[in-house]
Design a protein that fits this description.
The chain has about 190 residues and is of the alpha/beta class. It is about 25% helix and about 30% strand. A 6-stranded mixed sheet has the order 5-4-1-8-9-10, with helices on both faces. Strands 3-2-6-7 form a 4-stranded mixed sheet. Strand 8 (about 130), helix 4 and strand 9 form a beta-alpha-beta unit. The radius of gyration is 17 Å and the shape is globular.
């Protein structure tokens, strides 16, 4: 099974306008909402190519419930853990002559919620593939790394793919430094 982890998923709200005027009321000509986040994008592509995949991550509030629904509507299994504080972010993309984006911050993930995610990941088998991709919500990345390896020694080895780089790593949840990512992995999918 291929599992993708999206720590800070989103609803991507795409709005087309003919002529955006700042400071005025603008009317859209077209709009759509998609499930978003780099790991979710990977699962969508894998699913469309016929691979079985499961999305793992966090959801919060009514936007999180809608995100989970949209992922499942794509035919993808979702294992989104509920977060108490905040709501799943909404990323607004306004497309006109130029594209403007406003990306939400996302929920505040507590240590206990990160521990629940770590427990879930520890249940993966040796033949599973784990894809870690995208940004992390407030304070989550460092706390997640600490929870995976309290003393700096690895808990277990997973085969994983981080922003396109395949590897076997002992510290399974230590993503590659941002500067090693290609521009393609940080670009917009739509």
């Amino acid at each position: 099974m291929i599992y993708t982890v999206t720590l800070n998923p989103s609803l991507d709200y795409i709005v087309d306008v003919e002529n955006l005027t700042v400071g005025a009321i603008n009317r859209s000509t077209k709009e759509a909402i998609y499930p978003g986040g780099k790991g979710i994008n990977v699962s969508i592509i894998l699913s469309r190519l016929g691979a079985e995949t499961t999305v793992i991550g966090f959801k919060a509030g009514f936007t999180g419930e809608n995100l989970e629904h949209l992922v499942q509507k794509e035919g993808i299994k979702a294992q989104l853990l509920s977060v108490e504080k905040g709501f799943t972010r909404i990323n607004v993309k306004v497309r006109g002559k130029e594209e403007t984006a406003i990306n939400g911050a996302g929920p505040e993930v507590a240590e206990k919620e990160l521990a629940d995610l770590t427990t879930r990941l520890e249940g993966l088998g040796k033949d599973d593939t784990l894809v870690l991709s995208g940004s992390a919500p407030k304070k989550a990345a460092d706390a997640l790394r600490r929870s995976c390896s309290e003393d700096g020694s690895p808990r277990h080895t997973l085969r994983y793919r981080c922003n396109g780089h395949a590897s076997y790593k002992s510290a399974a949840l230590s993503p590659l430094p941002r500067k090693t990512q290609s521009r393609r992995t940080r670009g917009n999918r739509r």
